Amino acid sequence: RRTLLFLGRIHPKKGLDMLLRAWQAVQHKFPDWCLLAVGPQNNDHFLDMQRLARELHLNRVEFVGPLYGDEKNMAYQEADAFVLPTYSENFGMSVAEALAVGTPVIVTKGAPWAGLNERQAGWWVDIGLDPLIACLEEVLSKPKEELDARGRHGRQWMKDEFSWSSISQQMVDTYAWILNGGVKPEWVKTD
């Protein structure tokens, strides 16, 4: 069985309600896929989402409490794809975590992850049920090898841009620019 993973706070802004409705539209076309929703159960929204799943008569959906440490990393690694259909996100740490272990991601444009499409590490889609359904149909129909390739691209991206060696080099280059002038590094925003 292949796994689509949602991992994050079970909160209205994360778009789990939209994901459940999208799953209803695609679940019968992809019987080898399951949806795993991982996150804390400490609010009424978690119960609301379980209730919505029952009302929509969803198949192959499992709600799991929070995972930490090695268990969380294992969930990312074992997933065939990660999804965050957020309405609003300033970064989306779970996106970076999924990419860092080599899992391709689907993220709505409520999060700043345009590089997903550019780097072929996943899909950055418009917010809304129809765009999410269309993306799920595309992703869930992809062979494992293609998803794995996107996962490798994402892992390399995280190494290139967010590893300690990359960040420390950016700091060195930034301070050199401050002290010596020259061409402003592309990551420095002055406006």
Annotation keywords:
6-stranded parallel sheet; alpha/beta; 6 strands; 191 residues
Protein architecture, described:
The structure is a single chain. β1, α1 and β2 form a beta-alpha-beta unit. The protein has 191 residues and is α/β, with parallel strands linked by helices. The chain has a six-stranded parallel sheet with strand order 3-2-1-4-5-6, sandwiched between helices. Helices cover 49% and strands 15% of the residues. It has helices at residues 16-26, 44-55, 69-78, 93-100, 115-118, 129-140, 144-162, 164-180, and strands at residues 2-7, 33-38, 61-64, 81-84, 105-108, 122-125.
Number of strands: 6
Low-confidence stretches: none
Q: Main sheet: which strands, in order across?
A: 3-2-1-4-5-6
* Mean pLDDT, all residues: 95
- Globally, the shape reads elongated
The topology string of helices and strands comes to EHEHEHEHEHEHHH
Radius of gyration: 18 Å
Q: Tell me which oligomeric state these chains represent.
A: single chain
What is the overall number of helices?
8
Give the N-terminus to C-terminus distance in angstroms.
Answer: 49 Å
Largest sheet: 6 strands, parallel
The proportion of residues in beta strands is 5-15%
Helix content: 40-55%
Structural class: alpha/beta
Give the helix/strand layout.
Elements: E1 2-7, H1 16-26, E2 33-38, H2 44-55, E3 61-64, H3 69-78, E4 81-84, H4 93-100, E5 105-108, H5 115-118, E6 122-125, H6 129-140, H7 144-162, H8 164-180
Parallel strand pairs: 1-2, 1-4, 2-3, 4-5, 5-6
Helix pairs in contact: 1-6, 7-8
Question: Brief overview, please?
Answer:
With 191 residues, the protein is of the alpha/beta class. It has helices at 16-26, 44-55, 69-78, 93-100, 115-118, 129-140, 144-162, 164-180, and strands spanning 2-7, 33-38, 61-64, 81-84, 105-108, 122-125.
